[in-house]
Structure of RNA polymerase sigma-54 factor RpoN:
Amino acid sequence: MQFGLFQQQTQNLVMTQELRQAIHLLQYSAAELTMFIHEQSLENPLLEVKEPPKLEEPMYSSPIKNTEELASPIDYAYIDRTSIHDFLLKQLQELTVSDKEKKELTYMIYSLRDDGYLSRPIEEVCQDLQLSIEEGEYHLETIQQFDPAGVGARNLQECLLIQLQRMQKHHHIAEQIIMFHMEGFASRKWKEISKDMNITLAEIQEANDIIQKLDPRPGSQYIADPISFVRPEIRIVPYEGELLVHLEDDLIPNVGLNQHYEELLRSSDDAGASQYAKQKIQQVQWLMKSIHQRKQTILKVGEAIAKHQKDYFLKKDGILKPLTLKEIAEEIDVHESTVSRATTNKFADTPRGMIELKSLFSSSVHNDLGEATSSQMIKEWMKQLIAGENKQKPLSDAKIVNWLQSEKDTTVSRRAIAKYRDELGIPSSSKRKRY
């Protein structure tokens, strides 16, 4: 081992404060960036923030707008944020009951979860109210008569039974299936149920069609929390067979230097004040540069995506082409992580409606000729194939694999088909079968 002084040249990536800020600002959504700017203005007196003009158009805009077109009444529709508890309490007010019963029923209503189910065992609720089980059951049955049907249930089985029993036309087979064979019914053991109940598979199929229309979470239709809106950061507009990409500059407040404070601090004889002013001016300049860089990056990424997905936006039957973050990164000469940050929580107003930029990327599957096919195209083929299948003999995943191989020259594993089917919300062949 030798000891001594040696000269060595190395390369290191130094994460400066300016670079760190630019990275953070790029991954922010417009709303998060606006909040960040206002937070910075509280800490920096030299930062001047000018709010963008308020637009009269709604947060969620239609794909293609005509400037002379009148606003849709839907844009001004009232959003009812009544919770399930408020809705049930309104119905309680219409009942003729004693004050004591009203207090007990109110307590039970607030013991329901947001989805409408009883949150605790009835015994615990009765203990809190110092009621007998019989009195508690009576109160719960009262609530179960309220709308929506199924509210106040203790489990899924009771919820479905309440809805079936409140139907104008009773379906006794469906009620019997839920009451005595619910687990086997969910597992599609229909032949066993058919034999046990002495009914046909067609009758079970009819009961299934009715049960599928029931709501397993009756309280979820009532929104307790405010709805959050998004606004697009870019707009993709068709023009003479091409796509124009516009940056929405009016989303983010304008940032600049407060000239008045700057002159006061610069003209001060206090060395500390001058140093403070220099530091704060530099912060404002960094912020302005980072915001500008963020806008340019999002615009470049949007333009590159629009070029690759041109057919998807211009054609009614167009589908997403295979596209990766790496391809866009190489095209605009940035790192792949930069593209990822520029597309996460960033939305575009397109001829297809409001779309998150991240969703415009699609994985690829190569066919026997080495040509790339997007996963979305395979999903479209699957949807069309399953829609036209014989429902009495639905196609298995293995048969779909064979069909893609023979008809589309595309090799996909059975596991991938199962994954795509789940993403499309299509049940397995055994659950699609009709009798």
